[in-house]
Amino acid sequence: MAEKKKILVTGGLGFIGSHTVVELQHEGFEVVIIDNLSNSSLEVLEGITRITGKTPAFEKMDLRDKAAVSAFFANHPDVSGVIHFAASKAVGESVDQPLLYYENNINTLIYILQELRDKGESCFIFSSSCTVYGQADELPITESAPVKKAESPYGNTKQIGEEIIADTCNVHHGLKAISLRYFNPIGAHPTVEIGELPLGVPQNLVPFITQTGAGVRKELSVFGGDYPTPDGTGIRDYIHVVDLAKAHVVALQRLLHGDNKENYEVFNVGTGTGSSVLEVIKSFESVSGEKLHYKIVDRRPGDITAAYADTTKANRELGWEAKSTLDEAMRSAWAWEKKIRS
Ligand code: UFG
C-alpha cells in the first residue's frame, strides 16, 4: 500500500540520502529534503526527478542554524518521520578539525531531536556506522558486539549520536528511533542518474578504483598486504547503496506502523559477506574488462583488519536483506564513473 506520509530527509542530496529519497518516493512517501549543498549539488535533485517522475521539496539550509531548524518544523507540522543523513564523514578531516565534526554531527542531531521531542509522536532514523565496533573480536559482527573506543572524532560522533538518541528515547516515549549501522556502501543507481560524487581525491576504495580505471588517478595504493587475512589485504562488507537505501524505508515503516519492539533499536546493514581489497579489484577488472594499476603499500593508520556484518537481526526483524552481489554493485559504480567522465 502506498504511503502518503511526509518524511524529512536531511542530507537528501548526498550519496546515500539521494538513493533513499528515490526509494521513499517509489513507496509513495512525500519527501522534503534539507541539504546545505556543502558536499552535494542541485543536479542530484534533477536525477531523482528523472528516476521517479517527481521532484521532492527541497530547502537549502544549514542544520547548525537552530532557529532555522525550529522554523522548518513550525512550517511543516505534518512531518511524520525524519531520516537524518546530514553529517560530515571524512575520517582524516575529523582528526584535523574535531570541533567542526562535533558541531556538524552532534549539534544538528540535538536540534532535530529537540523538535521531535516537542512534537510528541515522531519517528527518527539515524545514519550510524560499523565504525562503532572498531576491530570486533568476533566475525561476523552482531549488534551485541561491544562498542569500542572510537579511532577518530568522526567515529566518536556516531557513538555519541547513538547514545544521545538512546537517552532521549528512554524518557520521551513518543519518539521512536532506529540507528542503522552501515558497513561499506558502494555503487550507484541502476539508471545511472545518481551516484557517488566524492570531493577531491577519494578516500574510499571503490571510487578510487573507478577513478583509476577511468584514468583520473594513476594507480591505486592498496593499504597493507600483511594483514592476517587469506590474501593479506583488509576485508570489508561492501553493500550496494540501493540495498542500503531500501533498509531505511523498511526501518521507517517499522516505526510508522508501530512494529518496533523497543523505542530505540539498532540494526547492522551489510551483506554478511566480507571481501578483501584484492577481491574488490578482481571484481572491478571482471565487470569492466580493464586492468587496474595498483601497488601494495604500507597499512593506512587507523584501519582495521576485517569487518563484516551478521545481518540476522535485520533479516528477521525488518524482513530485509541485501540483494546485490559485489559484481553488480561494482558494475553500477563503473557505469556511473564512465557517465560522469563522458
Ligand atoms: N583501501 C585501499 N586503498 C585506498 C582506499 C582504501 O587499500 O585507496 C582499503 C582500506 O585499507 C580498507 C578498504 O580498502 O581495507 C576499505 O576502505 P574504505 O576507505 O573504502 O572504507 P573503510 O572501511 O576504511 O571506511 C568506512 C567508511 C568510514 C567509516 C569506516 C569504519 O568510509 O566512514 O568504514 O570502519 F568510518
CATH class of the domain at 6-186 and 240-270: Alpha Beta
Order of helices and strands: EHEHEHEHHEHEEHEEEHEEHEHH
Say what the CATH topology of the domain at 6-186 and 240-270 is: Rossmann fold
Give the N-terminus to C-terminus distance in angstroms. 40 Å
Largest sheet: 7 strands, parallel
Number of helices: 11
Structural category: alpha/beta
CATH superfamily of the domain at 6-186 and 240-270: NAD(P)-binding Rossmann-like Domain
**Oligomeric state of shown chains:** single chain
Arithmetic mean pLDDT: 97
What is the helix fraction of residues, given as a range?
40-55%
CATH architectural group of the domain at 6-186 and 240-270: 3-Layer(aba) Sandwich
What amount of the residues lies in strands? 15-25%
Descriptive report:
- This protein starts with 5 loop residues before the first strand and ends with a helix.
- It has a domain at 6-186 and 240-270: NAD(P)-binding Rossmann-like Domain (Rossmann fold, 3-Layer(aba) Sandwich), CATH 3.40.50.
- Helix 3 runs parallel beside helix 5 (98-119), helix 7 (205-213) runs parallel beside helix 9 and helix 7 crosses helix 11.
- Helix 2 links the parallel strand 2 (30-35) and strand 3 (57-60).
- The chain contains eleven helices and 13 strands.
- It has a seven-stranded parallel β-sheet, sandwiched between helices. The protein has a two-stranded parallel sheet with strand order 7-10.
- The chain is of the alpha/beta class and 342 residues long.
- The mean pLDDT is 97.
- Helix content is 41%, strand content 18%.
- It is globular.
- The structure holds uridine-5'-diphosphate-4-deoxy-4-fluoro-alpha-D-galactose.
- Uridine-5'-diphosphate-4-deoxy-4-fluoro-alpha-D-galactose (UFG) binds next to helix 6, helix 7 and strand 8.
- Uridine-5'-diphosphate-4-deoxy-4-fluoro-alpha-D-galactose binds at residues 89, 91, 129-131, 154-155, 184, 203-205, 208, 220-223, 234, 236, 277, 300, 303.
